[in-house]
Amino acid sequence: MSLSFFLGKLLRFILTVWAAATLVFILLRMTGDPVAAMVPSDAPQIVIDQYRERFGLGQPLPIQYMAYLRGVLSGDFGISFRTGGSAWELVAPRIVPTLILTGLSLLMALIIGIPAGMVAAMRRGEFVDRFVMGFSVFGFAMPNFFLGILLILLFTLTLRVLPAGGFESALSLIMPAVTLGLATAGSYARMTRSAVLEVLSAPFIRTAKANGVPPLRRMTHHVARSILVPLVTLAGFSVGSMIAGAVVIETVFAWPGIGRLLVTSVTDRDLAVVQLIVILAASTMALSNMIVDLLYGWLDPRIGTKRRSGAM
User: Fold this and answer.
1) What is the C-alpha to C-alpha distance for residues 280 and 96, in angstroms, rounded to an integer?
2) 312 residues of the chain, pLDDT tens digit each
């Protein structure tokens, strides 16, 4: 990996975050005056002006934008309309619960999806293959919020074995993680099956089979390494779907993460909190894509050679 390649990816990361920060700034101010939503309809004008001055909304938009960018660069994301405190102080405690939920869901998707896809490819056309593909389609097609409600009806209201929501114990994490991870597991199963089938027809696999290499060794030493690139690509995309899904799942299960906070902040028109959460989400997605790009050259040196020669 050359320094110019790394700097190019770093520049793209910075531009992506800047574009997201600018877009959310413009869109939030196009939705109307947030101060009007904070004060009673019969509030005197002097009170409205005081609120605008306090939150910096009385200045022209270009000046607001420059102050906003300076604040982002210095780590000052503004004041929450709802609490009157720093937006970062409101968002920071919600990051860990969201990381726990999305991290466990992604781990569950990897543990279930990849082995299921490999088994389906090895048993192509058999019952196991059809069952895995049926599970994959079910997980991908089932809306997250609907599956979450079904799980609550079954395991909370009927069987009474799991809590309906909150973050009080490890049991509270089971249903949100399963709901969020099921769709991603289906995507991994389909991707793994397709990649394995393609590799199994490659000449080097036929050569290994002709030399008497056992099936399990062919899968673990030859096939698994060859499918890492498409799986890493899917992992990069999964971060975005996990963040989007967390907004819904945290609301359904009353999970105290940033997804649920985003919903309430949008409802309350809490500009500083919404802006901070969008910047965090954009930074996470851009960083994951950057890491995936950097991993390509390490997983498959041929990709790095093509990049250096200008073929990619």
Assistant:
1) 13
2) 677 778 888 899 999 999 999 999 998 888 777 777 677 777 777 877 887 787 777 788 899 899 999 988 988 888 888 888 889 999 999 999 999 999 999 999 999 999 999 899 888 889 999 999 998 888 878 888 899 999 999 999 999 898 888 887 888 889 999 998 887 888 899 999 999 998 888 888 888 888 888 888 888 788 888 888 888 888 888 887 788 888 889 989 999 999 889 988 888 888 889 999 999 999 988 898 888 888 877 777 666 555 555 544
